[in-house]
């Protein structure tokens, strides 16, 4: 039998997943994730990890991506306590796609302070697909996918929901969420509302150093990191075994401040009494973001053919505010005739339209899926500052996916996908005059009109085989990522790096080749998963510091340019779980990733924000259910993170550290009612440390200190028995 296991594939069935409640329409396969069994569609040879809604609340961090960072191989590129974006095996930003309700989330993913506009209270489950997934979702999935789904719809007529209250000690968070859903016959509906407010977060130090300049922190709080969030979502539609059509509407709104020293040094003569009068003030720099999303998911069962049609619309509106600061030849006093408000540094207005169509049918031992998807983006800019130009982008993809049952315990997979995209950037000229050569003056052209077309053919092959308690998977494939507008057309100051960024109009699409192995052993009381990988980029796009300095606009900032290099990456994740006794369980999670640039100006160096090797041990106890207490648990974990000396200039090394966390929870039942209580103590011993995947460690700002997180959940409603 082993001679057949010579091919491999990355396959992910979400492309072929039906709408919620339609699992009966496809063949189900029992898969082990996290040591527990659940029924779902076959996922091929792709490495997948799952977090349920209960787990998300149990391990809740400042953001959804910080919560998911508990999974091995997953980390969060963070900026403060509440903003972060996912990183899978050391790849992040536009190399990881986030998919919500079948539609790829499209915001301003390229910025460090551009967190994902998603409410973690509304997420029913979160899956992390590791490895190249371009054939699943096209460009941006070259490093993996974070796939989010709403709560499963009720199977019978009824109504239920839950009210949650949340408070955190570190940044004085308070707020709550109301989630509800119901069903009447074949009609389903649901809604949710979340509101959170938080103040400046605390770190275990009273002084940070920015370019050797000492910055004092009042009461150890990072000033101007307060914020507030308001989210609501609605869903409803028709659901049956042979047809479903469900609409999703969500709106995410947030306003938050940023530590001023992350965007430039604070004035030395600042009135600290006024500046620090309140930990909940939102000053400058700050941002306001609104993300509107409308999705329609459709499923049609035509017996031999099963069709899925997903439609999506998104509007991301981002305003970045700051005090007007003249750089280069900018007017020292803001002109009165400017139509742009004096504090509106940058504005990004993005609209995205998308469609995906899939047809699944069986032919002998083959299960074939044919599909196509298309997307149109229109991004407009405004403000007195400039970094990237306005642009529009069209993208389309055609794919075919095959699942072949070679034997009862052996599956082969194959996929082929063709992508085409076209990006056009708009010209941009400074609104002020600069002194040019030969004593001439004029408005400098920051961006010229650009039109680039990209196409790529990607493929994937793989196999999976079950040897009793041992499951083996192997896959290999090619993936790609088209360069984004920032990489092609940036031409301005990026305060996050204290640098002047310049795009490169000649960049080619990234090409990546990856080999993944997966070994899963699950005898009684034991679960072991080992997933090594190897990855090669023929032209990885990176930001390279040059020896030049900007003289017109960057206040003498060093110029960084986007370039390409060959990159080799390898690593592995390990999960061990052992049921010591009926009520005691021990888990060990480990991860390692190493990257090396093989060409270019940074040959021999790693990649920015490369996660350090780490291991996490968790010991948990679950009590027996009683009349009044159910699902009671206690757990203590410790995460060891090694020092990270493999850096790329201008990064600095980060030291090793250990962080302890405590969790407890129970469900209290009385008089037919229930109350869910959860308590976390994050960073139990108030450890001072630097996370290498955090942006703020670039200015030597440690991670947040001890944090008590208390959540109270009140479920209500019930489902009909008929």
Task: Outline the structure in words.
With 722 residues, this protein is mainly beta. It is 3% helix and 55% strand. The strands form 7 sheets. It has a 22-stranded antiparallel barrel. It has a 5-stranded mixed beta sheet with strand order 3-9-10-7-8. It has a 3-stranded antiparallel beta sheet with strand order 4-5-6. It is globular. The two termini are 48 Å apart. Mean pLDDT is 86; it is low at 1-43.
Structure summarized in a few sentences:
The chain has 722 residues and is mainly beta.
CATH top level label: Mainly Beta
What is the CATH-assigned architecture? Beta Barrel
Uncertain runs: 1-43
Q: What is the number of domains?
A: 1
- Name the CATH superfamily classification: TonB-dependent receptor, beta-barrel domain
Total helices: the number is 5
Roughly what is the average pLDDT, rounded to an integer? Answer: 86
Structural class: mainly beta
% residues in beta strands: over 45%
Major beta sheet summary? 22 strands, antiparallel, barrel
Radius of gyration, whole Å: 26 Å
Number of E-type strands: 40
Overall helicity: under 10%
Distance between the termini: 48 Å
Label the overall shape: globular
CATH topology: Maltoporin, Chain A
Task: Using brief descriptors, characterize the structure shown.
mainly beta, disordered N terminus, 40 strands, Maltoporin, Chain A, globular, 722 residues, 22-stranded antiparallel barrel, 5-stranded mixed β-sheet
Q: Helices, strands, pairings?
A:
Blueprint: E1 28-33, E2 36-41, E3 47-52, H1 53-58, H2 64-68, E4 74-78, E5 84-88, E6 91-92, E7 96-100, E8 103-104, E9 125-130, H3 134-137, E10 144-149, E11 158-168, E12 173-184, E13 187-198, E14 207-210, E15 213-216, E16 227-239, E17 243-257, H4 272-275, E18 286-301, E19 306-321, E20 344-363, E21 366-382, E22 391-407, E23 410-425, E24 428-429, E25 434-435, E26 441-442, E27 445-447, E28 450-467, E29 470-481, H5 485-489, E30 491-494, E31 499-502, E32 510-521, E33 526-549, E34 558-578, E35 584-597, E36 614-622, E37 629-641, E38 657-670, E39 673-682, E40 707-719
Parallel strand pairs: 7-10, 31-34
Antiparallel strand pairs: 1-2, 3-9, 4-5, 5-6, 7-8, 9-10, 11-12, 11-40, 12-13, 13-16, 14-15, 16-17, 17-18, 18-19, 19-20, 20-21, 21-22, 22-23, 23-28, 24-27, 25-26, 28-29, 29-32, 30-31, 32-33, 33-34, 34-35, 35-36, 36-37, 37-38, 38-39, 39-40
